[in-house]
User: Fold these one by one.
Assistant:
Number 1:
Amino acid sequence: MTRATRRGTAGRAGRKEIPGTAHDAVMAVDAVLAEYLDARLHEAHEVNAVSAREMASRVAEFVQRGGKRLRTAFVWCGWRAAGAGGDLRTPLRIGAALELVQACALIHDDVMDGSPVRRGAPTVHADFARMHRAGGMNGSEERYSIAAAVLAGDLALAWADDLLTDTALTSAYGRQLHREWRALRGEMVAGQYLDLRAQAVGSSDEDEAVNIATLKSALYTVERPLALGACLAGAGTSTVEALRSAGRCAGLAFQLRDDLLGVFGDPEVTGKPADEDLRGRKLTYVLALAVRFAAESGDAEAVVALRPGKVMRSDDEVSRMRAALERTGARSAVEAEIARLSALSMRHFGDSGADHHVQEQFASLLERAVGAAPARSEEDDA
């Protein structure tokens, strides 16, 4: 079936046209989210008005506050790469479910990191703390806000599961969708726990840093969304595997960029503080590289600045750590790795058989995700 025929069929069925670009899909998913969240809020009010007002409404507001909607865009890329078969609303619903999983991950991550700001506004647990103070409530403000935020994240995940399940039940490829979804959730939780554990034991291991970045972010940000989109179109094994490889490389490049922004980014642009990872000595690939480079070069000052120690570091200690990441060459090395992974991702995506238009969309999306245009690899020049 040609694209024109698909659009004609969609029109006769009373549906909108297939989103022509990843950006169109991102814009369209907001409407799907709004409709779905409105229904969930109505249900929440029927259960209990207080919980709906103070808990469910906060989750819905957080989800709709913004974000790049990268996972939705990658679902669209996988779907289009595999031929864009089936109901055009299905990839948007999968995208909406992923945005709800992302909300759960961010709410819980902010609790674990003690982050005060997300997307330019107070984090969910910080907002619950404000409500506790303003209401003159009894007990510990901190314990209340943390417990409430954990429940808020749980609710976002429950809504995500419900949306994915409802969508899978109406799809011919529901079993494959559920298999990808189940793996995605398990990988994300494993990555979050390993991240927490590595910080607690003061790890500086490079392989562990890469493993955490892969599980915590790369898989559920890019690889699984691409595979979910491909499943919706009934893609063959070779197409799905090419997309998985592209997604693994792109997702890791995305997390490495996020790590750099967590140290060197402008809070006015990123919407979050730029020193939390250093203050808590979170294990990232750039930190692991810096530790090794410092030891190899005999940079005693950097070794001292980067070694494990107390949980929260002073502003002066954070400044010395940031300087060490620059001086050892770790920041430059990570920039080079981001470029290498981006080029490799583009080559794998081309192997999926996606047409030129979809490849251009993927390249644009990758540039947006990693902050730089994908460079040509040596193989491209061969």
Number 2:
Amino acid sequence: MTQAFSTGLPFLKMHGLGNDFVVLDLRGGLARPDADLVARIADRHQGVGFDQLAGIEDAPDADARLVFWNADGSFSAACGNATRCIARLLMDETGARRLRLRTDHGLLLAEDAGNGLTRVNMGPPVLDWQGVPLARKVDLDHLPIKGDPVATGMGNPHLTFFVPDAEAVDLTVFGPAHEHHPLYPQRTNVEVVQVLSRDEIVLRIWERGTGITLASGSCSCAAVVAAARRGLTDRRVRVNVPGGQLLIDWRDDGVWMEGPTALVFRGTLDPAWLAAGATT
């Protein structure tokens, strides 16, 4: 984003179960932020801080187009909780109860689930090695990695481990060690899952390009898909993450995710702050 902002850059801070986002309204042709600005905004000490940044753009074939960035400035094709948050924002803005949202992962349906909850269809999981993507053809249900994990694509790559005690895993070491595994050429999100019953799991998350997060919609979807493929759970599962609980329902038409959202505050990035980091 190279243009000057004489009055600053408006933004929203939102979260879904503690998985937090900065949202930029880019409708009307405002340019996307570059990777450097994304990373500056992500700084929790000198910027705003977020797990992902999301942009809302105009779309000719949908109610809006959504684009996502990780905290390190890299792109992500999908972000489930941010999609739910923005869906709620647009529903409140328009009064609609159902929306069509275009993402790099595809056209996603969102709907008001009642009781303040928002439901989004994240689309079918990607279950071929090239689509995840992986570096070579392997058995996605039993990867040749210590711990016998599962690979899934949800518009972004996932690596899911099943463990007896999710809290016992040191994600500060385990997460980055696997995010950069050579089997994943675009890096990967890492999930550790403890199965409680056929319809409930505990999930802890290391997000690609971000680190440990309190929740993640796409990771929750991938974890349930992996557990169901392994025969460990049914396809409708309550997912307990550090920030709360999501309901994931893997249906014939895609993986539906339901949960709460929150708009925390609206703000404006100061023109002087934006100019201080501008590159020529």
